[in-house]
Amino acid sequence: MEGMRGIARATPFVLLAGLLGVPEVGQGAPAEAAVPRPNVLLILTDDQRTDTMHVMPRTLSWFQQHGTTYSNAFATTPLCCPSRANIMTGQYAHNTGVDNNYEAEDLDQRSTIQAYLKGAGYHTGIAGKFLNAWDLKVNPSYFDRWAIQNHGYSGRPYNIDGKRKLVKKYTTDFIRKQALRFLRWFERDDDRPWYLHLNPFAPHHPYTPARRHRKAKVGGWGLNPAVLETDQTDKPPVVQTWNITRKEARRTRRQQLRSLLAVDQLVSRILEEMQRLGEQDTIAIFMSDNGFFWGEHGLIDKRWPYMQSARIPMLVRWPGHVAQGATDERLAATIDVLPTFLEAAGVEPDEDTYPVDGRSLLQPGTRDRLLIEHFVDPLIPSIPDWASIVTTDSQYVEYYDETTGEAVTFREYYDLVADPWQLDNLLRDDDEADPSPRAVTGSSVQLSRDRRCVGTSGAGGCP
Hints:
The protein has 463 residues and is α/β, with parallel strands linked by helices.
């Protein structure tokens, strides 16, 4: 398949015939030796909403003041394991083969960031959560150093560089310790760039803060209009069966925010150590795998197309390359991480074998829409397959029947400018000014195409 026509490709690499040889399928080729290659850092939280960053002042200082905030960033599948696969591969869930939390083994590891960068000569390391349901007896592919777990805050089993160990220490603090260890190990070969992937479990359920933060003040909560919503009859029937109490939502919010305080300390300590080691040429992304509900529309958890679930914090810093203190309002997504990192590293993706659906954030231009999709997860099978087209000012959603996953059972359309809290499904209020049947048909046809898109080239290219 052709490369990413329509957007600029990653920096060309030079194969030194007879010296470097040809990389394995799925591994990237290194940039020309004369071109310095940056280190690559990804910090990925778990279930963090966009309106939680105020409890992370150190992170904001490092990333927001000294980098760019993407204010319209989305998880293309708002569920942990599929989203992490999206991030690692730059592909939508319908192309990764990982569409629920129990399919980690289906991910082709050769298509991942770590495979490309290791193949290009990078040191690689990972600490924290890897992929849901990953067998900890199996070492993660394409990492030189690792300390991975699946779930939980303390007393959890880890695979640390191939050895199983029960770790009693609070997980965010343990990840920080391992990350510092890896950075110092990388420093032994300072001329060689590195890729470090840090995965704090916070603020995932059960939302456990560090002992030192258990009573920390995290600010009051002004209930937003979606939490106060009393009429959900314009929502799908399954949404109407949810009715989370405000007390539960308030407690969830408070505990999630408290759990993020240790993450803020982790981020700051890692960036301080990088500064001490002179690792200034580093492209770093701070983000979450998906958002979370605090009672909006009666919901808790994620998995739904509404903004609190689908939108994510995403901040990028790369001194001298990314604007400082800037906000970028383009539609950005989890699938954009791999092409962004590979362009920075001067590594060409193998798009003949693994077409990339995302776009590099280092390039100008923007997409006019974004696909968001969800597939039935065995843990909560009552939430059906759905897919959505999101633009900067609207959202169209289709829900599908459980038998074929194709027949549309319910539709939603929201004006995100006039109705940012998604209180009024314009396809259910019989207003003459609402989208016409022709417009809905057009959106449905486009969504059907996007659900089958591959790569960014040609008529079947991804948005």
